[in-house]
Amino acid sequence: MGLTLAVVAIVSGALIVGALIGVNGKLRPRTEGFIVALAGGALLLSLVTELIEPTLEKSTIWMVVPGVVTGAMLFTAIDYWIDEKWGSNSGGGLLAAVTTDGIPENLALGVALIAAGPKEVAALAASILLSNLPEAASGARSMRENQKWSKGKVIGVWAATAAILSAAAIVGNVAFAGVSEHVLGFVRCVAAGAVVASLGTEVFPKAYKEDAHTVGIATALGVLLALILSEIGGG
Known about the structure:
single chain
């Protein structure tokens, strides 16, 4: 559990680091877009290798298909509701959107750590960490510029968000530790489906908007990064 807590703390701590970068204006939009695409590519592959493939090995395709579809539908419905209720540019809408994106990722991390150690889920953890940095930087900058929040308030909000997402990972790790492989596999795939939906609706469109010319290269490099980390973890 100690190693699990350390991994979760480092990954969620990237939100606070990103927020600090954002409120001080240290990350250029094109650089932000490149990192977002890099993280998205890495996340896409790591979801397959560290969540979906283990389910296929230990359970059946009939856990994978409904799990992924359910996760994607849940994320899409919640994301739509948030846009309709708050709007994507308001403070409340931004925080709700970040939490909606982050909970499936952190739940996936916590569940993945049940059957493996930090080394075996290195690609997933690194991908989430990479995605947290520019997401928090962009959100913090938006809060400063659009909502006129103070630096202290922005950092405090992102610290609270990091705590909530850390809790999601720990709850996932503890709550599903004793369940059968079929149930665990279904939960893995629900989390994976939700993250895939967030990549398609939030991550890649944002990356293209900020850095249209190199987003394809960054995504490919992200896939390679996740592949290398998976090989290191499995070696």
